[in-house]
Amino acid sequence: MALQVSLVSADAEVWTGEASLVVAKTVEGEIGIMSGHEPILAILAEGQVRITQPDGSKVLANAQDGFLSMEGSQLTIVAGNAALIA
């Protein structure tokens, strides 16, 4: 079962889709989240969000000033600033 991910900034949806793994930087260090992860709420630190899609392709984004929330199979990352890395 894939993880449903939504990455949003203050003014726009940055990326939404399925992932097998998401790695983000929090104020307590990096965290890796896969489907089935226990519910969590964490404060984002400035850094990269690395999303691995089920086919193995990667999506990279810079994010800062926000939080991430995991509930069920839904991971929501809300950042004051977020943008995909080309």
Automatic annotation (TrEMBL):
Swiss-Prot/TrEMBL keywords: ATP synthesis, CF(1), Ion transport, Membrane, Transport
Gene3D superfamilies reported for this sequence: F0F1 ATP synthase delta/epsilon subunit, N-terminal (2.60.15.10)
Cell division is among the record's keywords: no
Membrane topology: Peripheral membrane protein
Top-level division of the source organism's lineage: Bacteria
GO cellular component terms attached to this protein's record: plasma membrane; proton-transporting ATP synthase complex
InterPro entries given in the database record: ATP_synth_F1_dsu/esu, ATP_synth_F1_dsu/esu_N, ATPsynth_dsu/esu_N
One Pfam match: ATP-synt_DE_N
GO MF annotations, alphabetized: proton-transporting ATP synthase activity, rotational mechanism
Keyword Membrane: yes
NCBIfam families listed in its UniProt record: PRK13442.1
Membership in a protein family: Belongs to the ATPase epsilon chain family.
Protein name stated in the entry: ATP synthase F1 complex delta/epsilon subunit N-terminal domain-containing protein
